Amino acid sequence: MKDAETDTVRGGPAPDGALDEAGHGARDLGFSASEGSGPGAGGEAAPLLSAERVKVVFPGRRGDAEARAVDGVDLDVRPGEIVALVGESGCGKTTLARSLLGLVTPTAGRVTFDGRPLEYASRALKAYRRRAQLVLQDPSGSLNPRHTVYEAVAEGLRIHGHAGDEQAAVADALSRAGLRPPERFFLRHPHELSGGQRQRVVIAGALVLEPELIVADEPVASLDASVRGEILALLLRLRDELGLSALIVTHDLGLAWNIADRVAVMYLGRIVETGDVERVLTAPRHPYTRALLSVLPESETEPVVLTGEPPDPSRVPGGCRFHARCPVLASGEAERAGVADACRTKDLPVLPGSGPAAVACHWAEAVGAEGS
């Protein structure tokens, strides 16, 4: 079943009108989200959402050490800005996103929204979640199979005591999400829709409350390649039309390449590189970012195969937390730069939540200092 409306990623369609099998294909045509004119592009407004030294620690089982899922993170999202939070599975990015929405209470640090610290009383969280909405990865799991599309989208209005015209609000949200005419979808059930249409219903359920921020956790991971570009283009259009801010949580740097204004690369509970997406992804400084980029289909460099698995968050290594898998350290480049010992023993600072590009890497800092 074809989606009701076809969008293309900003600047034009990918080859053959779709992204490739991995969901990429925009930047090689010479355009990018960061080149757009959305409110977040190039602005220096005060953050709408901000994490300040946030830590989330989970207790160990049967005497095991605590798991430091998020281990000191600063991260800002400005009004109208799309930020991609990128990293492997298990790096802590989903836990960080849930803490930003008040679904997980930080062990330390704080989250602020619109300049005010997030409060965790139920009434305060209810008010906050009207302004900040979550879009989950799997639309099939997000939608009750017994509910119609209308009921799914109207649910948020009913929870929050919407006093206006419910039907008009639902129709407007479905229309904005690309399901037109909206009345045609009111009485349908999730099994009657395509995967892309179900994801649009989930997005409409978030939009119906007119939020200022959307946190989308792997929003296209479960979709066919032919539909991914449409959903990414929809998110870009919502940013441009509504001034909507978004935090996109993903393992895929190719997705960040297509949609984000800024990118934050996360490894083992920390942000290791951050900055404008164009700068970070065309001139990555951290060996981990380089490794993630090297395996994209568009990459012209030899793929970097990292040895081993990410360390257990209950056993975070000393020094740079990436050093056990770092190809720069293994190849002797860090030794030649005089930072091998620091890589193994010296911790790195928490990177700023916004501002210029920044990297948490002893070798990158040493090489940068030599070249300056």
Q: What does the secondary structure layout of this molecule look like, with pairings?
A:
Blueprint: E1 49-58, E2 67-77, E3 82-86, H1 93-100, E4 108-113, E5 116-117, H2 122-131, E6 132-135, H3 139-142, H4 149-159, H5 166-176, H6 195-207, E7 213-217, H7 225-242, E8 245-250, H8 253-259, E9 262-267, E10 270-276, H9 277-282, H10 287-294, H11 327-331, H12 333-336, H13 340-345, E11 358-359, H14 362-371
Family: Belongs to the ABC transporter superfamily.
Protein name: Peptide ABC transporter ATP-binding protein
Pfam family, one: oligo_HPY
Features:
ATP binding, alpha/beta, 14 helices, 372 residues, disordered N terminus, Oligopep_ABC_C, seven-stranded mixed β-sheet, Rossmann fold, single chain, ATP hydrolysis activity, nucleotide-binding, four-stranded antiparallel β-sheet
Notes on the structure:
This protein has helices at 93-100, 122-131, 139-142, 149-159, 166-176, 195-207, 225-242, 253-259, 277-282, 287-294, 327-331, 333-336, 340-345, 362-371; strands at 49-58, 67-77, 82-86, 108-113, 116-117, 132-135, 213-217, 245-250, 262-267, 270-276, 358-359. Helices cover 33% and strands 17% of the residues. With 372 residues, it is an alpha/beta fold. The longest helix is centred in the middle third of the chain and has 18 residues, at 225-242. It folds into 2 domains: 15-267, Rossmann fold (3-Layer(aba) Sandwich); 283-371, no CATH class. The chain is built from 14 helices and 11 strands. Mean pLDDT is 87; it is low at 1-43. Residues 49-293 form the ABC transporter domain. Residues 1-46 are annotated as: Disordered. GO terms for molecular function: ATP binding; ATP hydrolysis activity. This is Peptide ABC transporter ATP-binding protein.
